[in-house]
Write a structure and sequence with these properties.
Blueprint: H1 7-19, H2 23-39, H3 44-78, H4 101-115
Helix pairs in contact: 1-3, 2-3
């Protein structure tokens, strides 16, 4: 007889499953979710479940990208060719035309909102 796992256990299992994906696999899964939701052929309940999984995938991708950025910073620093601070410490000067961290975060949130 099939017994559904309680929500907490099911959520933890989904996060563990997502955590095992490579960046490319997570992006592919996210793209599939967006296509399913945009098709309009899924129920509201299924769409909400897909949205939840999509958010977990986005979080996982961010974690992978942050780890890659730190690794690049470390490699650059070890090579002796580091002329700047690590990317997570860098802030553009007030007159700089580059976007601030806040603007980048807002752009990323806008992109995520566009996905769902």
């Amino acid at each position: 007889m099939y017994s559904a796992a309680p929500d907490g256990q099911a959520m933890a299992k989904k996060q563990n499953d997502v955590g095992k994906l490579t960046f490319e696999e997570a992006i592919r899964a996210l793209t599939d979710i967006v296509a399913r939701i945009e098709s309009g052929q899924t129920s509201l309940e299924d769409s909400l479940g897909q949205y939840e999984k999509g958010m977990a995938l986005i979080k996982h991708c961010r974690t992978i990208l942050q780890a890659a950025e730190k690794k690049i910073d470390r490699i650059t620093a070890e090579s002796g060719m580091d002329d700047s601070k690590p990317a997570d410490e860098e802030k553009p000067p007030s007159g700089d035309r580059r976007a601030s961290e806040t603007e980048l975060d807002e752009d990323q949130e806008d992109q995520e909102d566009a996905l769902f």
